[in-house]
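Suppose a classmate hands you a notebook page containing two proteins, each written out with its sequence and a corresponding row of structure tokens. How would you begin to make sense of it? This section walks through that situation. The first entry is reproduced here exactly as it would appear on such a page.
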Amino acid sequence: MDPLTGWYRDGCCKTDEHDHGSHTVCAVMTAEFLEFSRGVGNDLSTPRPEYHFPCLKPGDQWCLCAMRWEQARQAGVAPRVVLAATNVAALRYCALEDLQAHASA
């Protein structure tokens, strides 16, 4: 809830047919992942007040695009996953075994 995450900005990783990024993987941000994300064109570390986006810091939980999480996994920088808060729709892009291997404690 702080920062307020999710496609609907309701704190949950819910999705619908308009969510083309599939914001369904609940991940715990790390400095390494945030740097990776900035490097591939999605700067999550800079506040964007025009979008009511404060910025993310290591330790924040965020509903990531499933494809971005998979891209980060393949690059060896995937953040930990909160399985109980990750939407089953993430399985369209991510293997359950990979999500489980990155589960947060």
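The notebook's second entry, a different protein, reads as follows.
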Amino acid sequence: MNLALWIAAGLLAAVALLSGFNKTFVPQRKLAAIHGGAWTGDVSVVFLKTLGIVELLAAAGLVLPAVVDIAPVLVPVTAICWIALMIGAIITHVRYRDGALFVGLNLTYLALAAFIAWGRFGPEPFAA
């Protein structure tokens, strides 16, 4: 179970890192031109960059607290925050009619985050 939670956290951190990097460093017009990225053209650059930074912080929060053993409770807390972020992403992709692929991906990421939160708050917490 512990290994599965680490793998899930690593996968989710990789997704957050890639997504956060893109939103933070790729120009808004390029993101808006990508399939599923039309919503990025309708938000401010500040909002988009802030969202990217939040995702980069989530990538760090999913693994670093446990790796360095400083406040490892932040791992499941970050997972819960990711769940909220994915709910927003699902709503956005539904509103923009981006298709089932994007909604399905976001549901998958939400499920991974729920698994991490459940596992780290429940049966496999980090040792105190």
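A careful reader of the second entry would note: The chain has one domain: 2-121.
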